Amino acid sequence: MIIARSPLRITLGGGGTDLPSYYEKHEGFLISAAIDKYVYITLHQTFEEEILLKYSRFEKVKTVEEIQHPIVKEALKMLNIQSNNLEICSMADIPAGTGLGSSSSFTTALLRALHTLQGNIVSTRTLAEEACEIEMNRLHEPIGKQDQYIASYGGITCMNFHKDGYVWVDPLAITQETLYNLEDNLCLYFTGFSRSAGSILLEQDKKSKEMDKEMIENLHFVKDLGYQSKRALEQGDLDTFADIMNVHWEYKKKRSGGMSNPKIDEWYELALKNGAAGGKMIGAGGGGFLMFYARDKVKLRKALSQTGMSEVRFRFEKEGSKVI
Please, which pLDDT band fits residue 284 given cuts at 50, 70 and 90? Predict the structure, then answer.
């Protein structure tokens, strides 16, 4: 049996500038961090002439062409896997549709497992590029390249998205002390709302392609916030980083009416009045996780525990996608 896993992620700055509709004209930049919550894929060959898939649904088919799960189907076709005696199962620490990049974590873990089945050794870059090929080119999802790369590489990583599609990947130059302080004071809360990122990102993608002035200027500003976040983190200035989070969230909400809702706004304001120095929604928005940088974790946790939101405690993850 082969067991592969890929980490989920949080975005620390510049989110949204990794979509081709933006970076192919203006280049993009963001900081992404892998966390110790994972999507797992188990894969083994069976004695029956059938393909079994176990995820949120169950599939039992005879050929690859019959598979309903689009990512699994395209991954098997891409790697030219003809075997029809496979069982593929997926599990995850966090539900899908919560803004932590689970789709790309699934894709990279699946590709890692399938390459292992074939006896292939692939680089982290190749893995990320193959995942982008499946999700963006073959399935035409209106998403960016952040999730595939951070799931492959792990760590806290700066990404520059070039106009030709090349992604320059560089670890954030952060001290160990700043890393520990950041890790200790970032708090993740699940809002209870799940959503597909596609609808919100589709709106951004459409406006960017149309060269909508307001959208382009918004993304230019958010990219600059990403660079400011990089400087603040590398200088160990976490108070400034927290302030930038607040500005980022205000500009992020302007990109789509579906980015927030009255309940999310209420929780956000409650957090800022009770120990949070800064915060924002993780992912495309509209649901999923609120992330806060806390000046007073005890006060923040006491206040937010009364809202019914669940806190997910995490650590940063250094390894990226791997076979375990």
Answer: low
